[in-house]
Structure formats: structure tokens, C-alpha cells
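Open question from group meeting: does this chain pack into something compact, or does most of it stay loose? Before anyone orders reagents, we agreed to write out a predicted structure and look at it together. Recording both the input and the output here so the notebook holds the full record.
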Amino acid sequence: MTNILRSIPGIFRDLHHFSVGQEGTVYVTISIGTALGFAGTFYQEALYRKFVDRRGPEARLILACGASIMLPISMFIYAWCSYDFVPWIALCIAITLFISATFLVYLAVFSYVADCYGPFASSALAGQSLCRNMMASIFPLFTKRMLDAMGYN
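C-alpha cells returned:
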């Protein structure tokens, strides 16, 4: 997620010639994606209650399976729309899809780990959070150089 967030200023400023104010409005897509992901969790919870008797804790992952397919698709859309001749709205749609898919996968996996480990859930969730936070702290160190060397798409 850090790579996409880090690339927003470069893509929208360099390729689409957005001003700083216009560039800031692109971050609204993150709020929209989060709202869509949050709405999806209510549907996932209904699916969980419906299928928990037959599938157990794996019933938490039903919507996450679809979101896990949407995650790389949205990243490909974002990458292939990172040209100046592609309208900027396509990038905003890709960001919205990416954020909502990330939200759905994260919450489903978080709940699944808590269900599976029972009394040891706090340790399992702490390990999961440690790995996630370590990666989130490492990626900003090289993302700018990587995007400069490889290009946005």
C-alpha cells in the first residue's frame, strides 16, 4: 500500500499536471475505498453467520477470496493507467478498488487469526501486526528510488 500512496504525488503532478490542491483531492479516493471496504465487512459478517456451522473459521474468508483477486487486478489497472494519455479518473478508480480490497482482506485475515488461535489469539495477532509494521517501516526507505529507477508503470 505504501508504494501506491508514495506514487500519487509523482503520477498526478508529473503526468497529469495537477496542482498541490488537486493532488490532495486524489486522497479522497482512499476514504471512498475505506468506506466501500467497511460496507463489505457487514456483508462478510452476514456470510460468516450463515456458513460458520458448516465451514468453521474459514467462513470469515469468503469475501476475502474475491478481494484477494481484486487486489492484484487493481494494481495492474493502476500500473497500466500510469500514462499521460490515460484519463486521471482511471487511476482514482484503481486506488479506490485497491484500498477497498486491502481493507477487506486485512479485516478478514485479522478476524480469522483471532478465531483460529482462541486463547492464544493475542500472541498471533501481535505477530501478524509485527510483520506488517516491519514491512510498512521498511518500504518507505526505498520506494522513491525504486519508482525513479523503474518508472511509475
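Observations to bring back to the group:
The mean pLDDT is 88.
The chain has one domain: 2-150.
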